[in-house]
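Exam prep: given the inputs below (a chain plus S-adenosylmethionine), describe the expected output before reading on.
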Amino acid sequence: MEAEFNTVAEWTALVAADLGPECYIPAACRGSGQPAALDWLLERLGPRPGEMMIDVGAGSGGPAAYAARRTGVQPVLAEPEPGACRAAARLFEAPVVQADAIALPFGDGTADLAWCLGVLCTAPGSAAQRAMLGQLRRVVRPGGRIGLLVYLAAVAELTDPPQGNHFPSSGELHGMFSQAGLEAVEVASTPDVAQPPPDWAGRLEIVERELHRRYGHTPQLIAADEQSRLFGRLLSSGQLTSQVILLRVAEPRDVGRHR
Ligand SMILES: C[S@@+](CC[C@H](N)C(=O)[O-])C[C@H]1O[C@@H](n2cnc3c(N)ncnc32)[C@H](O)[C@@H]1O
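Solution:
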């Protein structure tokens, strides 16, 4: 995962920077993939101009930049990989802190909203996933909103899963929400919302072609491609599914009901 989320993230940003601004956001949306999932979340999160939104596991900053352009929200990015942090700063001049989702460097209730896209399954297990959800809940103000994009195991044993990922089942994930004082308000499966428009797909293809022309021979890009291949195979076989989820942070008066 280090190759994929650090080195290749930075290389992708270098390529996009050379290709031009119209490539930046598609190149820098890695786990969230395409606009329909982001639009689904933004419509339900309802960010207002100037509100603070923390993007946890922000990668190279594409989803946060998309949200800022669509809604005027002010994103702050938290991302542990230095190459991805540099990519977000290079492409979007984004405010980014190098941080792990299980120890976010923000005070309680700092943000109006947050999202966390394609990140939960990269945690080393269910304890860390619970800790991530607990941190998301802590940094968003009571009554605030959180968006998730998650990959879920639809079978007990995945065949040849990508290295370093831990996919909860839907039941396990939804159990973690109530333990964390989070209420799932709305859920959709991402295949329902998932076709990138042709201009987005075309820009991504141009970036990928140039990335492979420059770096296709490197162990880092070969490893990242293999991770993507394994991921894609599990999704297309139905062993993995993905959901977009709107969560509400419980108000103090609600907390007793969730513990
Ligand atoms: C699939 S990428 C998604 C990136 C971004 N959210 C997007 O949708 O474009 C997963 C991201 O999670 C980050 N990540 C992995 N473990 C993390 C952790 N413990 N805390 C925060 N982020 C983490 C990775 O570095 C990577 O940038």
